[in-house]
Amino acid sequence: MTDTITIKKSFDAHVHFRQGAMLKAVVPLTAAKWSRAIVMPNTEPPIETVETAVTYKKEIFAAVPKGNPFEPLMTLYLTKNLSPAEIEKGMADPPAGGCKIHAVKSYPYGATTNSQWGYRSILEAKDVLKKMEELGMPLLLHGEVHVNKSGEEVDPYEGEQLFIQDVLPRLLDKFPKLKISLEHLSSKIAAEFIERNGKAGQLVATITPHHLLYSREEAAPKPLLRCKPLIKTRADRERIRALVQRGLPFVFAGTDSAPHPESKKFSSPGAYGVFSAPTALELYAQVFDELAALDKLENFLSVNGPRFYGLTGCEETITLEKKDWQIEEPVVTEEGVRVWLLGDRQHGVGNETLRWQIPSA
Ligand SMILES: [Zn+2]
Predict the structure, then answer these.
(1) Which of 6, 10, 74, 327 supports an S-S bond with 319, CB 3.0-4.6 Å?
(2) Is the separation of the CB atoms in 187 and 238 below 8 Å?
(3) Distance 2 CA to ligand 1 centre (A)
(4) 228-237 pLDDT, tens digit each
(5) Which residues are catalytic?
(6) pTM of the predicted model over 0.85
(7) How far is the CA of 14 from the centre of ligand 1 (A)?
(8) CATH architecture for the domain at 4-357
C-alpha cells in the first residue's frame, strides 16, 4: 500500500480569487499547495482588458506570502466589449505591462456568479474567436445552455448535455484550430465526448474534485455543494471518474475553487460555487487512490495542464501522505467573514474524513 506520494508541484487550471479581503484570505491558501493557477476573470467589474488584468495580477501578487514562487496566470472575460485588438495585446511579446494573457473565459449569460456580461451564444463572438484561433489563445468554456431555441429555460441538469450536443459541434466546425478547454465537466455525455474527441494542446477538459466525489442525491440538499454546473447523478460521476482513471493527456485538474461568504452560501437561494483551495489537492489524491490510479495523479495535477498552456512543468515537488483528517473550521477573512471548505465535517454530506494530507502544509 502506498503511504506517501511525491509529485511535481501542481497546476490549478481554474480558480476564483475574488477581490479585496476575500482575495487576501484565499490567495495564500492556493499559493501554499499549487505552483501556478489559471485565474478566472469574473470579478466585478469583469477583467476584460489587459490593463485591468495587470491591476488584478498586482492585487493577487500582493497577497502571495513573501518568498513563495506561486504564479497567477491571467485570463480575460469574453464580454461584448472584448475586442480582437485586446487579444493581440494580451499575446504580445514582451507582454503589455508584464502581464501575458493565457486564455479567454466564456460564461453563458446568467450561468453563475457575475456571468451577466457574457454573450447569449458563444457563436456571436466570431471576430474575437477568429483572432484567438489565429494567434493560439485558448478559449475556456463554461459549456452550458440555459435557454433553448424557443427561448424556454432548460432543465439545469441538462444544460451541459445540450451545449455538448448542440453548440460545441458548431463552434468546432467554424473554428477548427481554436484551442478549447471544456471547464468543470460534470456529465456522462461530456466525458464521453472528450474521451472520443480530446487532443492534447487542442481540445482538453478540466475536472473539479467535487464532480468526482459527489452525486446529485448527496449534493442537492447541501448548500456547501451548490455549484454550476450542478453535481449530477451517480452514473455521471462514475463516468467522470472513469475518464480521469484512464490518464489521458488532455484531461487535467481545475479546482473551480470559488469562495463565497457564509451569509451568501447559506442563504436562500445560496450562491453557486464550492470553495476547495485548501483541500482540493488532497481530495484529488483520495479519488485517484480509490480508483487505484495514483500513478496517473502527477500527470493529471502537474503535467497535462501546463502542456496545454504551452508552459514547462514545475520542478519543485510536493509530498502527500495517506492519513485521515477532518475539517471543522472555516477560513476567516480579515473582515471576520467566514468561508466554509469542501470536505467540511459539519456542512458536507456528513462526518466527512479526508484520506490524504500534505504533512508540511
Ligand atoms: Zn469557475
Answers:
(1) 6
(2) no
(3) 32
(4) 999 999 999 9
(5) 256
(6) yes
(7) 6
(8) Alpha-Beta Barrel (3.20)
